Amino acid sequence: MSWWFLSILLSAGSLSAAGIEVAQTAMVAALPPAGEMVASIDSTGNIRLAREQGEAPEVRAMRMIGGENGIDAAVLPQTTMVTALPLAGGEKWVSPVESAETIRHAKKQGIDPAVLIRTHPDNLAKKDNVDLLEANNTVLKASLDECAAGGHWPSPFGANGEGKLDLVISWFTDKLQSSVKSHSLLKVSSRTKEDDELKIENNAEVKYQLRSFEKHGLLKHVRDVIFLMDSAVLEKYGAPRFFDYAGGEGAGATRNRIRVVTDKDIGVDNTGCEGCGKWSKRLAMHTIPGLSEYFIYTPDDVFMLKPFDVAAFFDAQSEKPVLHGFGTWTEGSCEGGQPVGTGHGPALINKCAYEAVAAHYQESGFRGGVMKGRNAMDAVCLYSNTMMSQWTFHNYGSGLDFFQECHTNGGCDLTVPPNAMFVNIQGDGVSDEYTQNSQLLAAAKNFLHSEFAEPSRFESQAEA
C-alpha cells in the first residue's frame, strides 16, 4: 500500500472506530527487518514474512515512512489494518469477500466479519463506500447460507418424516407447585384440593397441553420437552408438578426426557428487572444445553385439536421449513419488523439461523447477560422477519386451519371447539393476568377434561 493511499484513507475517515478493533485483532501484516523492506506495505511477500518474523505492522510502517512525518503508533493501526488480508492461511482476499467461507474464517480469527467486508480494498474503492449496515446484512445472508447446507434447508423431521426435535415451553407461575426447586429434580408433589379452585387448577394448562399433543400425534415427533422458566420462580414455587422428571434419565433410559432450564442456565440475568423474564429468555434459548438443531417454541396455553401433520412445519414441495404468524402482538422491539404475535403460538426455530440473527442484532440487544436497564426485545419477531425471505411464511388469518385464537373475553365459546390444529386459549376466567369469571372457568375446565382425559407419556403415575 502506497503512502498516498494511506493519506487518502486517513483524510477521508474511511476507517471507523470499529475498524480499529479489527486492527487490534488482525495485525498480521508484519514487515521484514530494515534493509529488506519492499515498496508495497501490503504485498503478499510482506504477509509471508510477517508470519515468520512477527514484526508489528505499525512498527515497520514507522520505519518505512519515518516517525518525523507525524504519524504515531496510535494512528498507524488504522492504516495498517487493511493489510490484514489473510484468512486462515490465504495470501489474498477470498473472492467473493461476502462468501460463507470468508465469514467463517473471519469469525475463527476473532474478526468482526462486517468490518472485514467494509474495509476490503474493493469496497473501500467504491464511490459511495460500504457502510456498516450493508456489511452486516451481507454477513447475515452469508451466515444463513452456511446454515442451509448445500443451499437447502433440511426437514426438521428427517428425510422420512419421522425424525424428532425438542419442544421448548415457556412457563410461569406465582403459586406453589412442587418440591422440585432445583435441577436435582428428585420428586414431585401432589395436587391439593385448593388447586381445583384456582384458574385451570393452579397452572395446570401445561398438563393438558401435553395431553393434547399426545392425543393428536405431535409427541411422536418430540425428543425432549424443556420447560423454560425463571430461576427465581423455580426456587420459590417449584417446577410444574404432574411430571416424571427422572423417567428419561440414567443409563439405558429409553423414554424421552422432560427437564427444566432456567434463565441462569443460558446466561440471562433478570436480577432487579421485574417482568423481564417474559421476553429475555428468548434472547438466548438457542443456547440451551443439548438442544436439537430444530426445535419448536411454544407458550403453555396452546392446545391441539386436530391430528398433527409434518406439513405444518415443512413444505415438501418447496423443500422449505414453514413459519407462522399469530397476530399483531409484540413483546419488545422488532426493529421495525412485522409483528408475528410472539408468545401466542408454536414457532419452528433453527438453532444455526437463530444464532445468525442474534449475531446480527447483538448490538441492538439480542444477547444474554444482565437485563436490568435494557429495553425489551422481541427475539422471535426478529427471527421470524429474517426467515420470511428464507422459508415459507403463513400469517394469521391466511385461510389455513393451522391456528386460531380463543379469547374468552372476546366471545370465544369453548362449547364449540375452534376448527384449527392449534388453539391458544386465554382470557377472563382462564389466564392469571385476566379477571376471574366462574362461568368461563367452568366452561374451560369442562373442555379440557373432556377433550384431554388421557395422560401424556411424561406424566407421573402419582398425578395420573
Write the layout of secondary structure elements.
Elements: H1 3-12, H2 17-25, H3 44-53, H4 57-65, H5 76-80, H6 100-108, H7 113-118, H8 121-124, H9 132-147, E1 165-170, H10 200-203, H11 205-215, E2 222-229, H12 231-237, E3 258-262, E4 268-269, H13 277-280, E5 294-299, E6 302-304, E7 314-315, E8 320-324, E9 347-350, H14 351-360, E10 369-370, H15 379-387, E11 392-394, E12 403-407, E13 422-426, H16 438-451
Parallel strand pairs: 1-2, 1-5, 2-3, 4-10, 8-11, 12-13
Antiparallel strand pairs: 5-9, 6-13, 7-8
Helix pairs in contact: 6-9, 9-14, 14-15
Structural class: alpha/beta
- Helix fraction? 25-40%
Terminal-residue CA separation: 75 Å
Indicate the CATH class of the largest domain: Alpha Beta
Order of helices and strands: HHHHHHHHHEHHEHEEHEEEEEHEHEEEH
What number of structural domains do the residues give? 2
Protein architecture, described:
With 464 residues, the protein is of the alpha/beta class. It has two domains: 3-147, no CATH class; 165-463, Spore Coat Polysaccharide Biosynthesis Protein SpsA, Chain A, CATH 3.90.550. The protein has 16 helices and 13 strands. The strands form four sheets. It has a five-stranded mixed sheet. A hairpin with a 4-residue loop joins strand 7 (314-315) and strand 8 (320-324). The longest helix has 16 residues, at 132-147.
Brief digest:
The protein has 464 residues and is of the alpha/beta class. Helix content is 30%, strand content 12%.
